[in-house]
UniProtKB/TrEMBL annotation, chain A:
This is Permease. InterPro entries: DUF318, UPF0718_permease. PANTHER family: PERMEASE RV2963-RELATED. The chain crosses the membrane at residues 36-54, 132-151, 199-222, 234-255, 261-280, 292-313. Belongs to the UPF0718 family. GO terms for cellular component: plasma membrane. It is a multi-pass membrane protein. It comes from the Bacteria. Keywords: Cell membrane, Membrane, Transmembrane, Transmembrane helix.
Automatic annotation (TrEMBL), chain B:
NCBIfam families: redox_disulf_2 (TIGR00412). It comes from Thiorhodococcus minor. The active site is at 11 (nucleophile), 14 (nucleophile). The keyword Disulfide bond applies. Residues 3-76 form the Thioredoxin-like fold domain. Gene3D superfamilies: Glutaredoxin (3.40.30.10). This is Thioredoxin family protein.
Amino acid sequence: MFERLGDLVAFQILRLSPESHLGAAVQFFVMDVAKIFVLLVAVIYVMGLLRAMLSPERVRAFVRDRPDWQARGMAVSLGALTPFCSCSSVPLFIGFVEAGIPLGVTFSFLIASPMINEVAAVILVGILGWKLALLYVVAGLLVAWLGGIAMQRFRPERWVEDYVWKIRMGDAAMPEPDTSLLGRHRYAIGEVKEIVGRIWRWVLIGIGVGALFHGFVPAAWVTEHLGGDDWTTVPAAVLLGIPLYSNATGIIPVAEAMLTKGVAVGTTLALMMSVAALSLPEMLILRKVIRWPALALFAGVLAVAFTLVGWGFNLIV
Amino acid sequence: MKTFKVLGSGCRNCEVTANVIAQAPKEAGVEIQLEKVTDMAEILGFGVMSTPGVVLDGKVVHSGGIPGPDQVRAWVRG
């Protein structure tokens, strides 16, 4: 359906040739804008109806006072289900520290949360198929798990700002959610507005980049240089992703264009993860609670992890 | 008079929330007191980790996003 819409706009209304670069790019753009935004609204609305989104306060209550492996398992999986505005990462960090949750577990949560979320996962299935979606989610969970453990090894406690340890968290009762059908509907509509309002730019930019790649980059060049034989492409993809930032959903159309042109799966996954989870602005926000060495370490651990994921998948697939 | 506090570190969503709450009483013709709280110790003191949060007369009524217009109206009138 969406493909036909793309064909209609690009080839019949605008009268572009399907063989031309511009024609292919425009067709891709129209098709993906329609497809991704329809999916996005539908998924967020349904999740909102189910009230599937967890609040960080509840995650904190679940995770505290548990043995390390349990806490980490919950932090990683709940991180995937807990959306939070990046401006919340500071109070979130402090809240976890105050609850006595180990820093390594907190880092696991901070890695998992932007990289994997249920909305991006469903859209991944819709655009790239369930196999790739599963690969991405499993690799993401693994990186979050091991990344947190690696951070713990370096004893990051010494880099936490002193004031963080002194803050005491209050125990205010959170307002009870309205669970009537109307209340759920209102909440779901609010979620759609809030999330789409926050990420639509990233998604449009992502689709634009994907469309350019799809239309203008020759497949032969891709197969020769990005086909996965050259081991340097994976670290290059990770490095490229560090200054670039997009929401996890926005990077999906780029990955779609890359994969259909024949870029290796591992290289694509490495770029996706680097763009979604490693972002300079978000890291700088964390500077309020941890000092530079910890930030540098955090970025380094993630870059290494994504590179290993990329190499691993390029070897297997 | 009702006292509102908007909890947040100064991000965009927190600004929007403060503006929404500042607007509503003007439409309803009532007066309120509004304070923006950016101090982390105080925010967490309310038990809120996900900002923006809203405190009405010392009680947390909302956290983790921009409140809906219906909600704000209910707080202002209620």
